[in-house]
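Pipeline run #58 for the internal structure catalog. This entry was flagged by the ingest filter as a single-chain record with no existing model, so it goes straight to prediction. Upstream metadata was stripped on purpose; only the residue string is passed forward. Reviewer on rotation: M.T. Logging verbosity set to normal.
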Amino acid sequence: MTTKFASRRAVLQGVGVGALGLAGAALLGCGGGSGTTPAPASASPTGPTVANIDLDEYGVPAQRNPKRGGILRRLMSAQEDIWDPHLSLTQAGVRWEEIGNQAVHLVPDASKLVPELVEKWETPGDGTQIIMHTRKDVNWHNRPPTNGRKFVADDLAFNINRIAGLLNPGSELFQRRSSLPNLIRADAIDDATVRVRLTEPSSGFMTGLADYRNNIASRDFIEKSLADFRDITKLVGTGPWMYDSWDLKIGATLRPAPGNWQVGKPFLDGIKMIQYADRLAYQAAYAKGDLDMFELPSKVERASLSKLTDNYREEKWDTGSWWHFRFNCARPVFADPRVRRAIFLVIDYKTILDSINGPGYWQWTGPLGGFAESIPPAEVAKLPGYNPATREADRKTAVDLMTAAGFAKGNISFKILPSSNVSSSSPFEAMIRAIDDLKQVWPAMTITSDPVPDNPAFTQRQVISDFDMISYSIGGYGDPVSEAEAHYSSTGSRNYGKYRNANVDAAIGKASRELDRAKRKTILLDVQKTLLEEMPIIRYNSTVGVVWYGKQVKGAEKYGIATNSGGYDTSFNLKNVWFDK
């Protein structure tokens, strides 16, 4: 394997039903549930042997002899969505990690790409073609309209073109199109081979394809059963799980998919998700032993739970999701980069993060985070605006910048759109604390909260850039060029703030073509310096994912990804988990 870095019907096939009701992004822990106590080992639900196909790649020694059986019980914390993996921001991506597969995926430390539905690939010639060879032993789930047919190269080619927005004129709806840069088209040469043609070499195309939200859906499902994206129990994948039931008020159940190509997986007999009235009820259930895992415990919850139970093992990792305030640079109030940087210099990020998450449960990030090409967290911590030791000097600089921009008293007016309207949520609390910091320096500044009723409403406003400023947490990409292109390029698919800088565009393009990693790093470090000065997005926290597992849960070690591809790699679907004492 060589890796280098119109019609109404056509519209529907490209976009999906309910495009205006795009799902809101949720953070890690979008699943949920509870169930019965772990059952003893039982006969294999999917094959005669327990295969250790990829345990080592997730850091789990093969000699640990995983056992079969049991129902894993977890929280139902998901929200309603149109379960289209190529349109949803996060929700559908999480669910498709359970029922589907990616073409390729990153190992947990993000050091390499490994095969999944694509068995091997090569980049011949001048780098403008990638030849992918698909697995021949994969079948779709035995549900209409695929009815258990073989996964073929045409499925993969169709998905690549759709993710990139090539099948639909409303390509802005495909918010991860930037994850597949320079694509001309993907075509199936035969049932097991796809040829990808690029306008120029791309150092990040295959890593972009590994984005956990770029799961592969069957072509005939999209073309024939598009409305069924509304019903999660009708989804057809190639992965280890199938949904049997789904009710947001009650919970959901998953069972192993018969004949899964990953022979012997999953080890569990099922997953049960249970809905709780609130987080206190959720805590009580875990403390009583009614759940096998507790997801995203807050600082307060960790302190409380540790007094109620000793049955926990904590997993922590850098998820690659990042907290930020995004400016709409097309709005007059934020057109001047001096105003944006002045606001950045005033906010006390460390106090916000220590208050919400607790020390040790967050990590600094600059304009790009989690990559070898990023400014390291330790260096970010020393920079003006981030460094608590320079707070007073930074605020003086901020006043000077605002004055130079024509607002000596900070007499500007704007609204902040939080991704959640729940006052205890991190985006909302961060917004309130930021407003307090800004008002301390500029009492004449008029800032109001601008919440929306639900995640789909937030997503829609973000997509069409209907905001002044946003408080949000967003999942990252697996490749720094893809990340930079998506958020900072003038044509980036996630450049919701309409940032424009021709020099940045040119540098990102140059980095995309540069296959020498050291040279690419130099280019991207220069880009980050520009972004720190112009500050289109205030990125300040690379989220630390936290899950508490009961000690009976095995196989979930090294749960997440250590770079900006989100915290959900294929271990998230719990196919590698088993129960033991």
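catalog note: The longest strand covers residues 313-327.
catalog note: The two ends are 40 Å apart (CA to CA).
status: ready for reviewer M.T.
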